[in-house]
């Protein structure tokens, strides 16, 4: 079953809002869907992933987030939840649930534990695909300590069930994936910073991104969307100008989000604090992550003030 929207435009990896007692903020989840769809005009979201603190969520909570999100969308935005679990049985159960709830796509990350041989991984991904009718995305991330090989992804792509590859392993991985599977599935480099180059060189009109579209944009100012529109209208000078204007925002993102992640520090507290400054429901992070200190909030406020967010 293919989703009913053309696979292009701007998608974001989003956080999971919690209440002060660390329970799910279901009202906040629904309000954030309104924000994503109506205020910043995203085409879709990836949730229950790394920035969604999926490791700190029970299976019941992951399912509840899917249900609340699906009810809140009212056809305005595409949903692609991460359904990966270390148990293949639980992964298939999460995928079935997402499909039944009405999610247009199911996302599978490279499993963090278990067999990592290509034969076993091929069987793992294939078993999930064979169990549902909904099409799938692959999120190839180095976070588990390895990445899926381009050859393995090419084998999976032959089934026609895997529609998008979010290739987060770096430029070499992106290039190899495009060479081997570019005719079979969409390869999306998730970095907003390299997106203009990918538009110009590869016509990558799908930005299946990390958190940048959610954090960089507001109802009054959607620079990433404006860059895409300038490209589509063949206003390359306009697209380049917007890309340059975002440089200060990217430096803040590098300081607080992507830089720490490359050092092994998950930046969910920074993402949530930034999101709260954009008017989104956010709340605390769950253990073992550490809440933002007052000093960190002050420093981030200063950085965000410098780029017009605060």
Your description of this structure?
- This protein has 13 helices and eight strands.
- The chain has a domain at 9-221: Alpha-Beta Barrel (TIM Barrel).
- The termini are far apart.
- Helix content is 48%, strand content 12%.
- The longest helix is centred in the C-terminal third of the chain and has 16 residues, at 247-262.
- It is an alpha/beta fold and 310 residues long.
- β2, α2 (59-73) and β3 form a beta-alpha-beta unit.
- α5 (150-157) runs parallel beside α6 (171-181) and α11 packs antiparallel against α13 (294-306).
- It is globular, with a radius of gyration of 18 Å.
> How much is the average pLDDT?
95
Structural class: alpha/beta
The H/E string reads: EHEHEHEHEHEHEHEHHHHHH
- Residue share in helix: 40-55%
User: For the CA atoms, what is the radius of gyration?
Assistant: 18 Å
Low-confidence stretches are: 1-5
Short description:
With 310 residues, the protein is α/β, with parallel strands linked by helices. It has a domain of 213 residues: TIM Barrel (Alpha-Beta Barrel). The chain has 13 helices and eight strands.
């Amino acid at each position: 079953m293919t989703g009913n929207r053309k696979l292009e435009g701007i998608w974001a990896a989003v956080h999971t809002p919690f209440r002060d007692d660390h329970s799910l903020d279901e009202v906040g989840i629904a309000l954030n869907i309104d924000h994503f769809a109506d205020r910043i005009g995203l085409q879709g979201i990836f949730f229950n992933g790394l920035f969604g603190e999926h490791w700190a969520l029970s299976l019941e909570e992951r399912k509840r987030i899917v249900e609340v999100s699906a009810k809140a969308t009212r056809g305005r935005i595409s949903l692609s939840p991460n359904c990966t679990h270390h148990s293949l049985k639980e992964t298939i159960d999460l995928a079935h649930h997402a499909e039944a709830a009405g999610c247009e796509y199911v996302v599978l990350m490279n499993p963090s534990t278990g067999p990592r041989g290509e034969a076993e991984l091929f069987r793992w991904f294939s078993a999930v695909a064979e169990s549902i009718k909904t099409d799938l995305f692959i999120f190839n991330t180095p976070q588990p300590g390895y990445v899926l090989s381009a050859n393995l992804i090419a084998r999976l792509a032959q089934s026609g069930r895997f529609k998008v590859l979010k290739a987060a392993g770096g430029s070499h991985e992106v290039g190899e994936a495009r060479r081997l599977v570019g005719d079979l599935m969409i390869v999306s480099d998730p970095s907003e910073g390299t997106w203009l180059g990918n538009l110009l060189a590869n016509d990558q009109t799908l930005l299946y991104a990390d958190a940048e579209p959610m954090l960089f944009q507001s109802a009054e100012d959607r620079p990433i969307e404006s860059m895409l529109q300038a490209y589509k209208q063949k206003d390359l000078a306009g697209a380049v100008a917007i890309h340059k204007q975002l440089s200060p925002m990217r430096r803040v993102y590098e300081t607080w989000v992507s830089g720490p992640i490359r050092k092994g520090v998950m930046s969910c507290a920074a993402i949530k604090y930034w999101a709260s400054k954009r008017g989104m429901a956010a709340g605390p992070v769950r253990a073992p992550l550490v809440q933002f200190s007052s000093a960190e909030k002050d420093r981030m406020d200063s950085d965000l003030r410098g780029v017009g967010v605060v």
